[in-house]
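request received
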Amino acid sequence: MTTEHNISTMMQAMGQAAKAAAQSLALATTDQKNAALQAAAQALRAQQETILKANARDMEIAEARHLAPALLDRLMLDPARIEAMAGSLDAIALLPDPVGDVMAAWDRPNGLNISRVRVPLGVIGIIYESRPNVTADAGALCLKSGNAAILRGGSESARSSKAIHDCLKEGLRAARLPEEAIQVIPTQDRAAVGELLGLVQYVDIIVPRGGKSLIERVQQDSRVPVMAHLDGICHVYIDKDADLEKAVAITLNAKMRRTGICGATETLLVDQDVLDSHLPAIIDALKIAGCELRGDKAVQALDESILPAQEADWTTEYLDAILSIRTVDGVTGAIDHIARYGSQHTDCIITENAVTAEIFLTQVDSAIVMHNSSTQFADGGEFGMGAEIGISTGKMHARGPVGLEQLTSYKYQVRGDGQTRP
Amino acid sequence: MTTEHNISTMMQAMGQAAKAAAQSLALATTDQKNAALQAAAQALRAQQETILKANARDMEIAEARHLAPALLDRLMLDPARIEAMAGSLDAIALLPDPVGDVMAAWDRPNGLNISRVRVPLGVIGIIYESRPNVTADAGALCLKSGNAAILRGGSESARSSKAIHDCLKEGLRAARLPEEAIQVIPTQDRAAVGELLGLVQYVDIIVPRGGKSLIERVQQDSRVPVMAHLDGICHVYIDKDADLEKAVAITLNAKMRRTGICGATETLLVDQDVLDSHLPAIIDALKIAGCELRGDKAVQALDESILPAQEADWTTEYLDAILSIRTVDGVTGAIDHIARYGSQHTDCIITENAVTAEIFLTQVDSAIVMHNSSTQFADGGEFGMGAEIGISTGKMHARGPVGLEQLTSYKYQVRGDGQTRP
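response:
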């Protein structure tokens, strides 16, 4: 047998086991799922030494391969990070269980009672880069929402992921749930990902988490539906009726609070009418915070240190301390710019004019549209949804933060007493 | 230029035009959309002669090609059917507009107000067989839900579809909405379908309506998400606590009311305990109604006219006056059979035992699960959802009947007064 054949057989078996586990999980009680999460959290704490040893070996290899410092930082575990993972499992146990929720119920004139009830999606495949904590978080979110998970992390974190996965399995066993509810693909062979993306008979949805190239590849190749966001090219638009103080504070926060997250603002749009009155203070605040600025000619005219923005700047997710700034002709100009260059993630208007705000909130076609608040609030936790597995910019199924509810489907239950259809 | 190149260029242009039209439609008022629907209904009535002439030409060609009588019947239009189409547009105008609905709204401790608001999906591609009325119905449902439509009907109905489409365009013009809101692919070249299924940058969702081979092909080839049901292998399960009268009436209705619809029952499961007490009366009723029966050995023992059921019978959607019958060991046996052979469409339990009913309703993983009522109620109209564009057996996005609401997505609107994220 070739290796490829082996991997195909292995992935089929994993898919089949996941589907069987999903059937049990769909019927598991909330208490049972919470018990599994809490036991897994305890196991993470108890197995701290084992996990740290596995992680040290991952780090050694990664350092020998000269991984970038940012990647090494993501990969690294210490006691505080392990405790954070365990705490996150405990927190997910405390979230409400969406499964079984009656979303709506009504009676028909013929006496039929119809209710729409939340059920798990089934089997979720998650593909992510070398962040060991995703193994715990993603596995736990799938478990709480009644879904079986097939996880595939980056190769650099393979040993750490395995050690964490062992703790999750311990939790499942303690709650008498099938261990196959959370599986980690045990090989780093890329063919395994290809197989996973084709397992339409077993896998209901794929959630890729990571950089643009990973997500593009998954969206291109997957025959299973994908829930993801490709880019987070978020905008703040300073309207002519913007409050200057809010404009400065929000722009600074939206760009600089954390530059590497998808809700960080990448382009600032400014109404030409307030270029002179509002932009200088914003520029000063950003420069003091260490942000590189790139602007159109009118923006550059305000400050000679501003670099010229190229066409590519309007479509670039810097994920860094860089901001592109463009002058626009009112809210319509802002809406047009966002429609053309945006990524339908999160966009914000700063204005004291309620009418203009509503135009922006209605006409900008993004998952999250905001008024007078920082784009960095684009987060399931900040929305009050508890933990999130990511943000979706697609319009199918879930849009915006993907929390427990968004990992469910529904079914209709119809109760009658002998009705036949005329 | 090759023809293929021409078709690719044409489909790109149609996609681009649809996306532009969708942006206008998303902002159209309910009154404007209703005016377009009502004007289109009037145009259908006024253009009756033109439509009938076009249809007569389609029928001539179809007859010369010796189309099956059932297909010819679907293709045929007469004044009553044209009036029914017009009436259906008027009825869709009366349905509530889902766009703009605030699905949920809440305040965060930091003062942010978050609301989830329904928005259209965008552009919907609909691929269907030679039923001219689908051109009107599908176009109207997309319009009312604020979506642009690209329609592709079967080649046999091309002339009828064009005449109906002309009326829809007349309605759009009368309401000052873009004509490109509803487009019909003007060529019967199969390459056009292939192009449509790849238009990920313009088309948000594909809805195929028709036979299994059409849907399989679309699901296999589409890079755009697909919403559909492949099979409707619906089951009725007669529990040991079933009321005999209900069992007979519901089984007869579920199988024979109309045999060609997706909610028609294809397999009857009977608890072994009531084989002798309940099944004979059901068999008699079905035989009188002209239904062919195929059963396992225990079922055949009750009536020598019953043919032996083969393994393939459990996975066949007959869409005809044929029923397969199997003995099972209680509700667990029924659930296992449905999990193995069903199509996750619609399944029903007949029982007077409320506990058993709940087990079935909870554990059968189908879009619609029923208690003591006919599977032929599996229909958006019967659910009180108004018109439907089809039934989805997938778990992503919409499950069960797909009405106006299911043709929408949502966005989050966040209103603040200067909040920044700590």
